[in-house]
Amino acid sequence: MTSLLVRYLEDLRGDSRRFDTLPGSLTATIRLDIHTTQGVDKWFLLINKGIVQSSKESTHPDLVMCAPQQLFDDFTCGNSRVMPALFRNAMQIEGDLRLLTIFDRILPVRKMRHHGYGRAEEPGNG
Amino acid sequence: MADRHVNTLDGDVFVVSDESGDIETNPKYPTGLFSFDTRFLSKWILTINGERLHALSNDDLEFYETRFFLAPGEPTHYVDAKISVIRHRLVAGMLTEQLTVLNHDHQGVDLHIRLDAASDFADIFEIKDLKEKQGSISVRTQSGALELRYDRESFSRTTIITPDAPADVDQEGFSFKIHLEADGRWETTINVETLIRGAAGRDLRASLSTHRGESRPQVRQELDTWIEKAPRLVCEDERLETAYWRSLADLAALQRRPLSLTQKLPCAGLPWFMAFFGRDSLFTCLQSLPYIPHTTPPTLRALANVQGSKVDEFRDEEPGKIMHEIRFGETSAFEEQPHSPYYGSADSTPLFLILLDEYRRWSGDDDLVRCLEQEARAAVRWMNDWADPLGSGYIWYETKNSATGLVNQCWKDSWDSISDHGGALAGHPRATCELQGYAYDARLRAARLAREVWDDPEFAAKLETEAASLKERFNRDFWVSEGGYYALALDGDGRQIDSLSSNIGHLLWSGIVDDDKVSDVVEHLLGPRLFSGWGIRTLAVGEGRYNPIGYHVGTVWPFDNSIIAAGLARYGYRQEAARIAESMLDASEFFAGRLPEAFAGYDRSLTKYPVEYPTACSPQAWSSGSILLFLTTLLGLEPHGDHLIVNPVLTPEMGRIELFNISGPWGHQDAFGRGPREQIPTRRPHRRRVFGE
Predict the structure, then answer these.
(1) Which residues belong to any copy of the Putative glycogen debranching enzyme N-terminal domain (chain B) (predicted)?
(2) How many Å lie between the alpha carbon of B684 and the closest alpha carbon of chain A?
(3) Which of A110, B164, B439, B587 falls 20 to 30 Å from B526 in CA-CA distance?
(4) Could you tell me if B45 and B24 are in contact, meaning their C-beta atoms sit under 8 angstroms apart?
C-alpha cells in the first residue's frame, strides 16, 4: 500500500507550496527517514520563508526524524501527533526540536481524527 | 500546619524531601526526585546502624544547593549523639549528594551506613492517585551502581545511582560498612542521573541541538549574571528589600531549559507546576519586564513555535491559539492526558499579544515584533473566529475534551470557580469578564504594532474599531446595575453570572472599564467583601460559593492583587494601589519574603497573620513576579517612547525607595520615591512569626 506521507511528499516535490502557518523568516531542512519493510526511504523537506518543497536529493538537515512508515502515515491523516510520539520514543529525532512543530504544520491534515493514543477513530471519520 | 519540605531545584531537575533530606512517597505532596514530569526517586532514606537521622538544621544555600546537618536518632536524644552527618545536596543537571560522616567520640566506631533507594516512576499527574503502572520496573546492579528502569512499549526512563566509595549494592540500595577512628570522618559522593531514553538508547536530550545540560559553575554563574543584570534596589523598607531579592532569586530558580530552545523559560511553580505554561509565563514576563526583560523573547518565541495550527479536540487546539501547558511524562506520551501540548486556556492568546506590545514598549525591540507578525495575526484571527462560536463578539470557552480537558479555561481554572450569587455553576460556554478585558487590550495593542511596525494602518483601524465596539458592548452586557460591578461571566444564554469577584480588578488593568463605572468598581475592590486586609479575595464574602480556603473562591492570590493594583494605578487610584502593595508586603514578612501562590481569605482582624493555603506552590513564578509589578506600580514606572516616566506614590511605611539601572529604549535610568514622611506610624512593635522557622 502506498504511504500517505510519500504520496503527499510526491505532490510537494513537483510543486513548491506556500504555507501561511510557517514563520515567514524560517529557512531550514528536515530529513524524514521513513522505515519500511524494504529499508529506509529518505525524503527532504526544504523550507524557505514559508515556501515548502520536497526532495530526494541529499542535503544537510537541521532536523532528522526517523519513524516507521505507519507512524508517519498516522501523522499525515490525523491519527497521531508528533510530540507525544517523540515523548514515548516511538519516533527518534536528531537536531533542532523546534522544527518538529514546523513539520506538523506542513502536514495536510487540518482536523485531527484521533482522541488519544490507541483511541483513534476509523479512517474516514472526522 | 503541613509538614515542612525542603526543595532543591535547577529547572529541569528538582528534589522535594523532608527536613533530613529523606524521600518517602506522600500522596498529598509530590516528594521525590523529578525530571521532565517523572519521579525518578520515590525512596531515598539514609540510616546509620538502622536508625533514621534527625535534622539538626538545614541550610538553603542557593536554590540548587542544600546542606542538611543530621544526627542519628530521635530529637529527644540526639544531643547525646557521638556521630553527625552532613548531607550536601546539589542539583545541576543531575542530583549529587555528598555524605560526610563525623565521629565526635574519643574512640573508634564501626558503622553501617545504609542508603535505601527506589523509584515508582510516577508521572506528576499520578502522584495524588497512584495506580498500578502499565509498564514494568526493573532493578539492576552493575559495577557498584544501581540502575532503576521503567519500560512501557518504547517509553523508557532510567535512574542510575553511582557512589564513589566502595559499597555493597543490592536491589534496594547501598550499604557502606566503615570504621571511623576517634574524631575521624568519612565521605562519599553519590550521583543520581535521570535518563529519558531516545534514539539508540541514548538520552533524548543528547540528540537535540537545542538542549544542553549544566554544571554547578554554570548554574552559579547564571544566577550571578541574572542578579547583576537586574536593577539594584536600595530602600528603607526591609520587607520590600527582602521580598525583591527573594523574588529575583526565585524567578531564576524557576527558569527551565526546554528541549526546544537554548535559552531558558519560566516554569510556573514548585512542585506541582514545574512546567512551561502559557498563561503563567506570559503574566510573569508582564510583571517582570523592567527587571528581567531578557526572559520575554524566548517565552514569546517558544509559545509561537507551538501555536495551534489545526483543530484537535483532544487538546482543545485551534488554529492561532496559544498553548496552556506542556508536559513530558508518561501520561502525556500515551495521551492519557492532553498536555503535549494542551491548549485549554482562553486567555493565553490575547495575553500573547499584550506581552508582545508591552515588551516592545520596555525594550524598543521592533525586530521581535516583525519576526512574530504572522503568529500575532493568527492570534487575532483566533480571537475573532474560533474563540467566538456564538458570534457575539466575546471570547468564550468550553472544552471539547470532556474526559480530561479543563472545565474552566480562565486563570481561575478549578471546576467550581465560575458560579453566580446563589452559588449555581454557570452553563457552557462561558465568557468570563476578564477575558473580554484582555481581548480589548490585545486588539488595541495589536493595532499599535500594526500601525508602528507592520506598516498596516488598515488592519490597525479595523482592530481599533473592533475594540471600541467590544468596550461598548461589554459595558452594557456585563454591568450588574443593581450591584454596581461587572458580572463574573456570561453563560451561553447571555445570562449574567452575577457574583462579585476579583476579576473586576483585571478589567481596570485592561482599560475596558467606562469612566462612569470606575469609582463603583474601586469601592467594591477595597470594600470589606473583597479586601481581607491582606489582599483582595478571589470571590467576595457573601457569594454562594465563598470559602476563605477555597482555591479560587475566596483565597487571596498575590498575582491577582498585583494585576489589580496596576489596574487601579492605570485609572489614577494610586493610593488604593499602594494600600494593596502595602498589605502584600506585610503578608510577605510571614513567608520570609516569598509570597506563595495563594493564602486564605480570612479577615485580617480575625487571624492576625495570612493563613497558609495547604497545597500552595512556593515558589510560584507569578507570585514572585508580583513583588516586581508592585514595585513598578509604586514607583509609577511607565515607558513613553525613549523616556521612562517615574511618578511614585508610596505609603508612609515604605520610606525611601531607590531603583538603579532600569534599562530600556532610554538607556539606563534610576528611579526614586519616598512615602509621605509626616504620617510614618510606629511599625511592628514585636517580631512577626515567619512560617518555616
Answers:
(1) 10-190
(2) 53
(3) B439
(4) yes
What does the block give as the cell for B205? Answer: 536530550
How far, in Å, CA of B534 to CA of B667, rounded?
37
Select the CATH number that applies to the domain covering B6-207 from these four: 3.30.70.360, 2.60.40.1090, 3.30.43.10, 2.70.98.40.
Answer: 2.70.98.40
Q: What's the predicted TM-score (pTM) here?
A: 0.94
> Which residues numbered 320-339 in B keep a CB inside 8 Å of some CB on A?
326, 328-330, 332-336, 338
Kindly state whether A125 is in contact with chain B, defined as any CB-CB distance less than 8 angstroms.
no
Alpha-carbon gap, residue B659 to B638, rounded angstroms: 14
Q: Domain A4-106's class?
A: alpha beta
If contacts are CB pairs under 8 Å, which of residues 201-230 in chain B contact chain A?
204, 207-211
Domain B216-679 annotated CATH 1.10.10.10: no
- What chain A residue is nearest to B405 in terms of C-alpha separation? A115
Q: Give residue-wise pLDDT tens across range A30-88.
A: 999 999 999 999 999 999 999 999 999 999 999 999 999 999 999 999 999 999 999 99
How far is C-alpha B668 from the geometric centre of its chain's CA atoms? 29
Least Cα distance to B174 among B113, B250, B132, B128 occurs for B113
Q: Which of these, B210, B130, B116, B119, lies nearest to B156 by C-alpha position?
A: B119
Extents of the domains making up chain A:
4-106
> Measured between CB atoms, which of B310, B340, B374 is closest to A83?
B340
pLDDT per residue as tens digits for the range B6-64: 888 887 789 999 999 999 988 778 899 999 999 999 999 999 999 999 998 877 778 88
Among A88, A94, A112, whose Cβ lies nearest the Cβ of B334?
A: A88
Q: What is the pLDDT of residues B101-132, one digit of tens each?
A: 999 999 999 999 999 999 999 999 888 777 78
Cβ neighbours of residue B248 under 8 Å, at least 6 residues apart? B226, B227, B230, B291, B292, B624, B628
Measure B201 CA to nearest chain A CA, in Å: 10
Asked if A111 is an interface residue toward chain B (Cβ–Cβ < 8 A), one would say yes
